[in-house]
Amino acid sequence: MAEEKKLKLSNTVLPSESMKVVAESMGIAQIQEETCQLLTDEVSYRIKEIAQDALKFMHMGKRQKLTTSDIDYALKLKNVEPLYGFHAQEFIPFRFASGGGRELYFYEEKEVDLSDIINTPLPRVPLDVCLKAHWLSIEGCQPAIPENPPPAVTAFPPAPKEQQKAEATEPLKSTKPGQEEDGPLKGKGQGATPADGKGKEKKAPPLLEGAPLRLKPRSIHELSVEQQLYYKEITEACVGSCEAKRAEALQSIATDPGLYQMLPRFSTFISEGVRVNVVQNNLALLIYLMRMVKALMDNPTLYLEKYVHELIPAVMTCIVSRQLCLRPDVDNHWALRDFAARLVAQICKHFSTTTNNIQSRITKTFTKSWVDEKTPWTTRYGSIAGLAELGHDVIKTLILPRLQQEGERIRGVLDGPVLSNIDRIGADHVQSLLLKHCAPVLAKLRPPPDNQDAYRAEFGSLGPLLCSHVVKARAQAALQAQQVNRTTLTITQPRPTLTLSQAPQPGPRTPGLLKVPGSIALPVQTLVSARAAAPPQPSPPPTKFIVMSSSSSASSTQQVLSLSTSAPGSGSTTTSPVTTTVPSVQPIVKLVSTATTTPPSTAPSGPGSVQKYIVVSLPPTGEGKGGPTSHPSPAPPPSSAPSPLGSSALCGGKQEAGDSPPPAPGTPKANGSQPPGSGSPQPAP
Amino acid sequence: MAALAEEQTEVAVKLESEGPPTLLPPQAGDGAGEGGGGTTNNGPNGCGGNVAASSSAGGDGGTPKPSVAVSAVAPAGAAPVPAAAPDAGAPHDRQTLLAVLQFLRQSNLREAEEALRREARLLEEAVAGSGAPGEADGAGGEAASALLSRVTASVPGPAAPDPPGTGPSGPAAVSGSATGPAAPGKVGSVAVEDQPDVSAVLSAYNQQGDPTMYEEYYSGLKHFIECSLDCHRAELSQLFYPLFVHMYLELVYNQHENEAKSFFEKFHGDQECYYQDDLRVLSSLTKKEHMKGNETMLDFRTSKFVLRISRDSYQLLKRHLQEKQNNQIWNIVQEHLYIDIFDGMPRSKQQIDAMVGSLAGEAKREANKSKVFFGLLKEPEIEVPLDDEDEEGENEEGKPKKKKPRKDSIGSKSKKQDPNAPPQNRIPLPELKDSDKLDKIMNMKETTKRVRLGPDCLPSICFYTFLNAYQGLTAVDVTDDSSLIAGGFADSTVRVWSVTPKKLRSVKQAADLSLIDKESDDVLERIMDEKTASELKILYGHSGPVYGASFSPDRNYLLSSSEDGTVRLWSLQTFTCLVGYKGHNYPVWDTQFSPYGYYFVSGGHDRVARLWATDHYQPLRIFAGHLADVNCTRFHPNSNYVATGSADRTVRLWDVLNGNCVRIFTGHKGPIHSLTFSPNGRFLATGATDGRVLLWDIGHGLMVGELKGHTDTVCSLRFSRDGEILASGSMDNTVRLWDAVKAFEDLETDDFTTATGHINLPENSQELLLGTYMTKSTPVVHLHFTRRNLVLAAGAYSPQ
């Protein structure tokens, strides 16, 4: 407002040198300094005068920008010939001139070379002025349509979320109706007005608005047609077969403001979806649904608390369900469990309060199912993963004390008579999970000298393994100290091979993404790819990788699961589930090297040097190009057993990945947007 | 007085033999009707004078000659200052008249001179003759109007000599603000700045004080004011700005450049921030040569800056200045300021701030004293049969019964004459045609379906976005029945869209028309050429940006005003230009049809607003008095008044009958860009570049409200059809809705307020804000309420 503007007047004048220059250009060579000074004053004054007049034209033209034509008109006011030849970008095509007693309107035409015109492609015809009508407001509420500014952008983006939170936490507070009305009335912020007004007020007839006593006015279950379309598109894309679409849909969920009226739908969609697909053991769909949860959580404008009661059971199901896929022995449902566990941890972090006790209730649930003797390995794995994700304190108090017991159980399965392959795999996974999570905690808890015996004494059969992991963890911590801001990545022990082969899957539509033929003996990759429509291509070279990634770029931290398997050439192929949390927007190829840093693409890693690529990436819309970056595993890995060697985990939605040439390390080939340093290189043992 | 005036008009109507009744120039008799000597200065040079001159000259037909005669000023061609005409605010006396005559002779404008001579004699007689009736009206009123005419300086030029008896109460009240001494030679000089007379104006600055003392004088006064009692300080602080300006100008005029510069540097920071635009102009003004032709400077010189100060404060100031022997300041106060003294409590800072800000200070109280007939005219009776037929056509059984009583109520209401309404035939209005009656019936029908708006029931807003306009949209208008939208563009085109399914068709060619059976019932349909049907028609004709557009109430015509100085009348039957009204030599910023059609008003850069009738190529009235561009012009709903908003930050209300300025509203801090009357005619809302909307009570001449919220120029204002909601659209890309009922309901218009003109604005205008609606980077150029109270807004999308 004018009152606040500080008066700032500058008495700028043109330098007298410019007068000289102008004079010289007119052919007046010598001009006195005094004359220059006088001229300067005069010219400056006239210019200011003209500028002030030109402003008048700008105002009357209802523009914010001064154009050259304004100056022309101002000159005309002063009876001065306008300056021809200067156009604003949006210029009037014809000019006016007078002279010799005639007035002329003419189009400015230059001589042009015809061939130039013929050879240049036709420019687009400028559109003619047209009129378009839309609703700016319907009975006082602004509809959220493309023609209107997005509600959150208008003012303060956090406002709606704050409000959602306020409403969610204090739904009966009497200020609420006031907020609704006052928002638009007082114009507290335009952001609040439309976001608030639309939907809510639109449905409730304005007459009701005035009612002083109203309990819970959020009984709005109608969506506008646009919103219905949006909802349909989004949900279809999220569970559909096209990964590119899904990526876009998830991106939209994670970033778009003003989705909160659709939250109940999304929430129901997810919980119902999980319910159905768990029964059908439809792993892929479960993964998609979890990614939706993730995207919802990532949206800064949504406040999920009201829907947590629906979401938690769904997510928990994905963690602890006995069976999540058709072929538990071959499908990588572990990754889903890990992912969901991380989600639950995130939910706890965000929404757990002293009143709802979400975290303690979740902890209790996990502990209960873990402690139970009869719990199958899959559930066991999920419970542990869920607990482990809750943080070091939980690991310390709940997991460590049970390590010995659990170790015995694992040994019983692994070393005992082969009862069931499934159990073996489960036990193996549980073991590596425990090692992965406990080692860093132990590394912090216990003083440095790591003694195998001491570990054995304390943790039973798992002791020696733990010990070696702790050592690694320490080394890693040391390395991390140098590289700030890297998150942990723990690699589990080598385990018996997990072998599956890729089934040629012609139909892109099949939801059960991975059908695995029975060629169990062969070391092949398990791919839990986010892309359903992977071209069926058996990958002959032994590279294998698993990538599961969420591609939404909105979150600050991204969780990526990748399972890396080592090269198959050696008999003892190792498969290690690797999880990594990448604190960055979009993941890329990472070079991880411990001892010697050899260029990974070229050098076969020697026994001492282990290189590892962790690729956590899913290009948002990448077709084949972004995805298939791959890297052949560094030479035949030395199979010195305990240390999992150069395993390369590469990303790629597509299985031909194995064929493609190795990317240069650190080249963000998967998606070029990522600086190489932002991932998390991890030292492999 | 009114009755007299009315008679006059009737006479006028009789005189005008051909064509429809129209306004005649308020000639001498008119002045008599108004009863004030001052008024008569509407002489040859004033509103109708022009017409008078031409008619008396035997209708020499050509435009040029009469327009020369129009005013002493108008040889204007020679004088690039458009301001010339309106500026003469000085007293008029014989000397002035002689000066003008002399000037005319010099300029070889013999014809004009003669006309003037004739006129002057006539005037004098008229004044002498009119003395009696005027006095009958009460000396007070007379004095007021005399004063008024002086204040508003409505028309320069040959003025009748000040009738001796009338003056005293006016000037006397202004103790010391001697109008006399400055008078000689002033008028003429103002008129044409290139003439020798100009130097006479400027010579007022000639008095040589010690230039080095100016700073001392000023800071001395500043010290005095700052040390005075709180209650006086606020009032006396008003002196700072005009004193500063005049002292600076004196320094510049006397060519003390350096002193002027340091004076400016030292004290410009003290001035109220709403003066900064003027200060910017001043700051660039550093040489005596610059003063020539600088309009802002001329405004300061020729119009007295009006201050309203309580008697106590004034006494205090006077005593101080006399004690200090501070002649320099005293001279300025006497010569360049008009101090309007009132008895009673000094005003508070807040009260003062609400009213100041215009280029020439506040309005004098007397300026707003005259009576304004703000009531609505009686609605014409419309035959019921027509109505019934129509309803039967609709085949709605229940309706006629329902409607009857309603109709009666409308009828009975209109039978009662609004006590504030002007006499029905105060100005001649065109007769209703059948089609108009039909339209009125449609209107009434729609009225029954109108939504009752209120804070709980906000209107829906439909926004018409002009796409691909590339910032070229400069004006928009919508017909009353909301069927057509016209856009004026910077590329000189006017485009008319039909927003209903009914396409725009033009009439067939003459040859084809002759083939049509004129007796057939659907002849009106037959004359239209189906081949030309389209949604959009483009009207070419202007040679500069089109800044104003207005549909006639019957939708047959469209007016557009442009940078090229013309107002054009377009036919919406043939989509061709019918007339180009030339008169403004400079850009015409706005134009609007009267609500009853036929008349229209235009205002432009030449600082005058003109009243036209569509069948006259010359204006009927010239409303002169603004000190800067007339940015917007609006007719009062009863068509008897015209409101103009100007870049001098004042709003004026003009009487169409006699061309007098009857209200001056000050308080805006920026150029005014939008105006609207409330549907009941009682209130006026104005919006300016400062983003504020001010509400005025026309009857009392008071500011009654201030709506803060917009952050940029308010481009458009409109009341809902029943006046409950005020919608404002702005360059800040928002439409805001305000509770007009609440804004007007608790008006304190007690006698005291009315008498003193002191106002106390309600603190919180936020309570009145009902809604804010952002557009997507689309400035809201126009707003319109449909007959059912749906808001139509329009603007051009301007990508960032």
Automatic annotation (TrEMBL), chain A:
Region (Disordered): 147-206, 531-581, 618-685
Record's compositionally biased regions (Low complexity): 549-581, 672-685
Entry keyword set: Nucleus, Transcription, Transcription regulation
A Pfam family that the UniProt record links to this protein: TAF
Top-level division of the source organism's lineage: Eukaryota
Domain TATA box binding protein associated factor (TAF) histone-like fold stretches: 12-78
Protein localization: Nucleus
Amino acid composition bias (Pro residues), ranges on this chain: 147-160, 631-641
CDD domains named in the record: HFD_TAF6, TAF6C
Gene3D superfamilies: Histone, subunit A, TAF6, C-terminal HEAT repeat domain
Major site of localization recorded for this protein: nucleus
Family from the record: Belongs to the TAF6 family.
Descriptive protein name: Transcription initiation factor TFIID subunit 6
Species the sequence originates in: Equus przewalskii
TrEMBL record, chain B:
Localisation per UniProt entry: Nucleus
Keyword Translocase attributed: no
Bias (Basic and acidic residues) ranges: 407-418
Annotated coiled-coil segments of the chain: none
Gene Ontology terms describing biological process: mRNA transcription by RNA polymerase II; positive regulation of transcription initiation by RNA polymerase II; RNA polymerase II preinitiation complex assembly; transcription initiation at RNA polymerase II promoter
One MF term in the entry's GO annotations: identical protein binding
Residue ranges with Gly residues bias: 30-49
InterPro entries: LisH, TFIID_NTD2, TFIID_NTD2_sf, WD40/YVTN_repeat-like_dom_sf, WD40_PAC1, WD40_repeat_CS, WD40_repeat_dom_sf, WD40_rpt
Gene Ontology CC terms: actin cytoskeleton; transcription factor TFIID complex; transcription factor TFTC complex
Region (Disordered): 1-68, 154-190, 384-438
Major localisation: nucleus
Keyword list, A-Z: Nucleus, Repeat, Transcription, Transcription regulation, WD repeat
Residue windows of the WD repeats: 466-507, 539-574, 581-612, 623-664, 665-698, 707-739
Feature: compositional bias, Low complexity: 169-185
Pfam families, sorted: TFIID_NTD2 (PF04494), WD40 (PF00400)
Bias (Acidic residues): 384-395
All residue ranges annotated as the TFIID subunit TAF5 NTD2 domain in the record: 209-337
PANTHER family, A to Z: TRANSCRIPTION INITIATION FACTOR TFIID, TRANSCRIPTION INITIATION FACTOR TFIID SUBUNIT 5
Subunit structure: Homodimer. Component of the TFIID basal transcription factor complex, composed of TATA-box-binding protein TBP, and a number of TBP-associated factors (TAFs), including TAF1, TAF2, TAF3, TAF4, TAF5, TAF6, TAF7, TAF8, TAF9, TAF10, TAF11, TAF12 and TAF13. The TFIID complex structure can be divided into 3 modules TFIID-A, TFIID-B, and TFIID-C. TAF5 forms the TFIID-A module together with TAF3 and TBP, and in TFIID-B with TAF8. Component of the TFTC-HAT complex, at least composed of TAF5L, TAF6L, TADA3L, SUPT3H/SPT3, TAF2, TAF4, TAF5, GCN5L2/GCN5, TAF10 and TRRAP.
Family: Belongs to the WD repeat TAF5 family.
Job description of the protein: The TFIID basal transcription factor complex plays a major role in the initiation of RNA polymerase II (Pol II)-dependent transcription. TFIID recognizes and binds promoters with or without a TATA box via its subunit TBP, a TATA-box-binding protein, and promotes assembly of the pre-initiation complex (PIC). The TFIID complex consists of TBP and TBP-associated factors (TAFs), including TAF1, TAF2, TAF3, TAF4, TAF5, TAF6, TAF7, TAF8, TAF9, TAF10, TAF11, TAF12 and TAF13. The TFIID complex structure can be divided into 3 modules TFIID-A, TFIID-B, and TFIID-C.
Protein name according to UniProt: Transcription initiation factor TFIID subunit 5
Lineage: Eukaryota, Metazoa, Chordata, Craniata, Vertebrata
Primary gene name: TAF5
